[in-house]
Write a structure and sequence with these properties.
CD59; mainly beta; 15% helix
């Protein structure tokens, strides 16, 4: 199975289009999705497949853009030296990006590690650890949108209210 992938990051005035041909499981064919991180950087991806030997799939269609906020808020950060990052920065998710994503890459052979957090569409989350090999481990880990941020606010507020009740 071969597929074209077309990651297309855009933020500000920079647009980059790239294609790659890979062999993948059939359940990853005809997928598209997007990722957004703090600072306005957005990446769109799409796949197209063909099933015969030495075939060339058609170029995939990228998902449409949406600037409509969907109510989901995710932490957003990047790290070029570690498989984790933590921040108080957040990004408001738009369109069908209703999951919070932690992307990690760890390359044992070259000691390369990086990570980022942001918003993602479900199809990006479905990739999971599809691209892991013996030397490179790439993971897409998603959570329900913004739950951790809401709990972070509610727990201190609840504790404060309980303290006020017991003190007065």
């Amino acid at each position: 199975m071969k597929r074209w992938t077309n990651p297309k990051p855009f933020g500000g005035s920079v647009t980059v289009t790239a294609y790659a041909m890979l062999c993948i499981p059939t359940n990853q064919c005809s997928k598209s999705g997007s990722i957004s991180v703090y600072g306005g950087l957005k990446t769109k991806m799409a796949s197209a497949c063909c099933t015969t030997d030495n075939c060339t799939p058609t170029l995939p269609s990228l998902p449409s853009s949406s600037s409509s906020y969907n109510g989901v808020v995710c932490q957003s950060c990047t790290s070029s030296t570690s498989t984790s990052c933590s921040t108080s920065n957040t990004v408001q998710c738009t369109g069908d990006e209703n999951k919070c994503l932690l992307y990690t890459l760890n390359s044992a052979g070259s000691a390369v590690s990086n990570a980022f957090r942001g918003c993602a569409s479900q199809s990006i989350c479905d990739i999971g650890s599809l691209f892991s090999t013996s030397n490179v481990d790439i993971k897409y880990t998603c959570t329900s949108g913004g739950g951790a941020l809401r709990h972070t606010f509610y727990l201190p507020a609840l504790i404060g209210l309980l303290l006020l009740k017991f003190l007065f």
